[in-house]
Amino acid sequence: MEDTKSVYSICSMCTVRCAIKVEVEDGVAKWIEGNPHVPGLEGSLCAKGSAGLAFQYDTERPQYPMIRDGERGSGKWRMATWDEALDYIADKLKEITDKHGSKSIALVDRGGPFTDLTKSFMKALNSPNYLDHDDTCGKNTNMACQTLFGYGRTDMIYDWPNTKHIVLYGRNVFESLMVKEVNSILDAMEKGAKLTYIDCRATVTASKADRFLMIKPGTDYALNLALINVILNERLYNVDFVNKWVTGLTELQSFVIPYTPEWAEKETGIPAQEIINLARDLSDAKPKVILHGGWMLARYFDSFYSSRSIYILNTLLGSIETKGGLIIAKGAKDASKKPLNSLGTNIPDVKDKIFDADMPGKSLGTGHVVNIYKVIKTEEPYPVRALFVYRYDLIASLPDPEAQKKALDNLDLLVSIDVNYSKTGWYSDVLLPESTYLERSNIIGTQTGPKPAFIMRRQAILPRYDSKPAWEIFTLLAQKMGAGQYFPYKSIEDIWNYQLDGTGIKIEDFNAKGFVSLAKEAILMGRNDLKFKTPSGKVEFVSQTLEKNKFLSFKPYESPKKTEKGIFRLTFGRCGYHTHATTQNNLYLNELMPENVLWINEDEAKDLGIKNGDIVEVSSNGYSGKIKAYVTPFIHPDAVFMVHGFGNEIPMKTRSYKKGLNDNAFQIGQLELVDPVGGGTAFLECFITVKKA
Ligand SMILES: Nc1nc2c(c(=O)[nH]1)N[C@H]1C(S)=C(S)[C@@H](COP(=O)(O)OP(=O)(O)OC[C@H]3O[C@@H](n4cnc5c(=O)[nH]c(N)nc54)[C@H](O)[C@@H]3O)O[C@H]1N2
Ligand SMILES: Nc1nc2c(c(=O)[nH]1)N[C@H]1C(S)=C(S)[C@@H](COP(=O)(O)OP(=O)(O)OC[C@H]3O[C@@H](n4cnc5c(=O)[nH]c(N)nc54)[C@H](O)[C@@H]3O)O[C@H]1N2
Ligand code: SF4
Ligand SMILES: [Mo]
Fold first, then answer.
1. Å from CA of 383 to ligand 1 middle
2. Do 305 and 185 belong to one domain?
3. Which has the least CB within 10 A, 195, 286, 326, 517?
4. d(CA 525, ligand 3 centre) in Å
């Protein structure tokens, strides 16, 4: 008789973490679909999520622990047992910490709702150096949001279903996708919501928008200053909300006087009348408007301020903590429930400071992943000699791979824990294979939002190879490091029971839907008793945090660097079929998009004698590569574009080996190039020469 079961779990083909249902027959995963109990998801999955089965049954992924047996990156490995590999790590760590103390260990993590495990692990090792990936993602947006509201970017939840007007700045929602968001936006549009899309390239999202504004790259700040100018001059803002909740309106008013729509037209290429029309349309729809904080504006030098201007616009339109706008995320406590117990509760606090706490010339916040390279190189303020990289591919996701490798060479120990052969894994001393998301359970996470919930990734099938789940890897490591008393767990159920203790919720409560909702209805603060976590408790246009750190609250606009004939700004982004540099070798996804191409404006291409489909040579700072040109009118003449994540150099991944180009490789000298205030990586300050090959 066939043995079949359905398991509710969480996708991990990208970090959006859609809830899924997995159908299993005789221990084999046969089908994956979106969790039918999640509104806005109801069965749907993206191409990458569906390709989870191809990933699961692929042989071209790590199958056992591997210890380096040649130069770093040489690809020479020896197969190890778990005991051997973990002993190797523990012995090295002991040597390192005997010499340099426990703070010489750092761990970089992708982030997300399950990080209590890795954070507690670092606490158990008595090191303050836990970092996440956000510098390369939305750090500037996050910091901008913090200085205005006291909440971070992921605390501002977009209430798509109830909105009337959506504005997206290079937020390519229909390709760089989150399944639930796509469905909710499409539903809102069917109900009449308008979509304004701003990009230097016509994407799939542009094709679905009511209004598409092609913008000169790097000039969104100018557009926003002009929008603010019109909204204030014409008194289009939400007067009640602003009067009650904002500090610094007068200062903003005088700051934007010179930034008229006519001025912005010259900077952005967007006609002044379009800017005025947009301001008026937004005012008509207020407060049910969403101007998405985005990511792509967060990758220039002045991104902190352009991101900040987006949140200022939302505030002026009154769209904060209201239906159809940006709702502040709520957790268990807001739903009058006891939060999950942290695995770190009983571990003593770490006394040492994180390495970039007092770094000279530092941007806002600490734990910036780019600073790890500075510390490894300079050993200031103290040496960091061992690095764990968990669920993160540093070398593929920060600029200038060669500069990174050079810095990493100063480490005594580099360990990657991954489900694929990542670039960082390939350069590591030890590569530990985690069981895939279908083969393992994770600790329980809290999904904050208007309706908070506890979420569970649950094992659907047995591991195919000699891998282990993260909870077990970190538990064993803690035990080998003499910190076993803080990780006494023998099974994931032990951990779940500990996390849930006192919450009134049991493991079985996850059986019905895969998650446990903590609130029936969206939790909204009353319009008159909003709580902002800024020093003043208000939305701080003039920010006390910024002023205290000697940064401006309003930064005068500066034009982006000019390009010359044949030299273009290298822009990049995602496509619907791939996750960063992770999925290019997936059997199905590789078939859908085996390599990337270079988008180039048709007039520019003509001047350079380049025709559609020609092979072109692109170069920057001595690095060059060949790629197929995609000649189109739908990209701004200053920019060229390629999908991120190609150019795999790991021979074990045969399908994607040496296919397409890697955008990061052109960002030479940019490793430490960051927005001075937000600290996010300025990837987009990259210029390349294009000529016919
Ligand atoms: N040039 C350039 N650089 C970029 C970007 C760009 O577009 N262009 N994008 C930036 C952005 S927005 C981001 S968020 C970062 C993303 O950069 P990363 O976080 O490095 O990318 P991911 O694809 O999310 O995967 C990270 C690693 O996690 C591994 N992984 C996946 N699932 C699991 C799992 O279940 N367990 C374990 N242990 N490992 C797993 C993958 O195999 C991969 O090696 O890159 C940034 N860097
Ligand atoms: N399929 C898929 N979906 C994903 C991911 C994935 O890897 N694959 N990753 C997830 C992650 S980690 C993230 S951070 C998000 C990213 O989501 P997005 O930021 O929406 O995605 P990107 O594709 O990186 O970039 C979007 C656009 O920014 C444009 N752009 C470049 N410069 C400018 C500019 O100066 N102004 C404006 N207005 N636009 C500009 C580019 O032309 C590009 O079309 O996607 C998430 N969703
Ligand atoms: S967006 Fe696609 S790949 Fe990412 S979690 Fe959702 S289904 Fe999986
Ligand atoms: Mo990201």
1. 26
2. yes
3. 517
4. 31
